[in-house]
Specification:
Elements: H1 2-26, E1 49-53, E2 62-66, E3 74-75, E4 81-82, H2 90-107, E5 112-116, H3 130-154, E6 161-166, H4 168-179, H5 182-185, E7 188-194, H6 200-205, E8 220-224, E9 226-227, H7 235-238, E10 256-258, E11 262-267, E12 272-276, H8 299-302, H9 304-322
Parallel strand pairs: 2-5, 2-6, 6-7, 7-8, 9-12
Antiparallel strand pairs: 1-5, 3-4, 10-11, 11-12
Helix pairs in contact: 3-4
């Protein structure tokens, strides 16, 4: 009898294990735990940050920047695949730092600049179905929210706050607006979603997602995506419900001239920026997914002078309204 009970118990455990394995395997692409998940960042460690303090007279803003996607799926020495950047891997940090330092060159002057390294989802993650993308990036967004909360504890809350991010970093900005408290939102001069979308559902989930209408409104979200023609608007990235032209800060189809030779026109119907006089040759197509008619990789750089000026305008407007 003892042997029979042991046999039945063993059998039940095996059936349960097999059923669990089958269930997990059926959704493997959505469960990051089945792949290699790198060690979580420790945001008390300065290694996890790029910071620049260039606010010499205390009149600037605090800028929290979220870097875009730099890693492809990769394997460790044991052959396990990871769908996330490893913040403790020096090579991965160097990749992210390239963008961060280049962005800081125009965002940090006159301001205090903070950018965390985080376990961003790999580019392959954004080639999945939308539901799978959502599940895959949850870990990445949790890292960003953790870093942001750490940043808030350290900063002077009487200063204007600006958050900005490019591509996956733009997605993170949307998540941060949903994550932040009303008190923190009151500190917000503006949020910049560069090269990503804000959906109608996003705006219904949080009153903090308020579309910018001009150059100096505060507590607003600036969102834009750039294409050569509206037919190239990428649904994963650019299916947005809001947009503004960062050259003339209009939300209609009034064209603006950038660098004397580039015409930038917002399509109110498609909510994308259509450029003429600029082909973006420096950004070749990637995996047939990006820079194919859209000029996704240009977003933090093409309008950098406009953004730099606007940071100052909105920070000053925020201080004026607080007074």
């Amino acid at each position: 009898m003892k042997h029979l009970k042991l046999f039945l118990l063993t059998g039940m455990l095996m059936i349960g294990a097999i059923s669990l394995y089958a269930m997990m395997s059926a959704h493997e692409e959505n469960i990051p735990e089945l792949a290699l998940v790198p060690q979580a960042p420790d945001y008390d460690d300065s290694l996890m940050w790029v910071t620049v303090d260039d606010d010499k007279d205390g009149s600037g803003a605090d800028i929290f920047y979220v870097v875009s996607t730099w890693e492809e799926d990769w394997q460790n020495e044991a052959g396990r695949t990871s769908h996330y950047a490893d913040v403790w891997n020096e090579r991965h940090r160097k990749h992210m730092a390239r963008e961060i330092h280049k962005v800081a060159a125009y965002m940090s002057p006159g301001n205090r600049f903070y950018a965390p390294f985080y376990r961003h989802a790999t580019i392959e993650s954004f080639m999945l179905k939308s539901d799978s993308i959502e599940k895959r990036v949850q870990l990445s967004m949790d890292d960003v929210c953790t870093a942001f909360d750490h940043f808030l504890v350290q900063r002077d809350s009487t200063r204007p706050l600006i958050i900005a991010g490019f591509s996956q970093g733009g997605l993170a900005v949307v998540r941060l607006l949903k994550h932040m408290s009303d008190e923190t939102y009151g500190q917000l001069a503006a949020a910049y979603v560069m090269g990503f979308k804000v959906t109608r559902e996003d705006t219904l989930e949080s009153k903090h997602l308020k579309a910018a209408q001009g150059e100096d409104d505060t507590g607003v979200t600036i969102c834009y995506n750039t294409v050569k023609d509206v037919k190239y608007a990428h649904p994963v990235i650019a299916a947005t419900c809001m947009s503004i032209n960062p050259v003339n800060w209009r939300t209609d189809a009034t064209p603006a001239v950038l660098h004397d030779t580039i015409t930038v026109t917002l399509s109110p119907e498609y909510q994308v920026l259509v450029v003429q006089g600029y082909d973006g040759k420096e950004y070749p197509p990637y995996k047939g997914f990006l820079n194919v008619g859209d000029i996704h990789s240009c977003e933090p750089w093409l309008y950098s002078e406009c953004l730099q000026r606007n940071f100052k305008v909105r920070a000053q407007a925020w201080r004026h309204r607080k007074r």
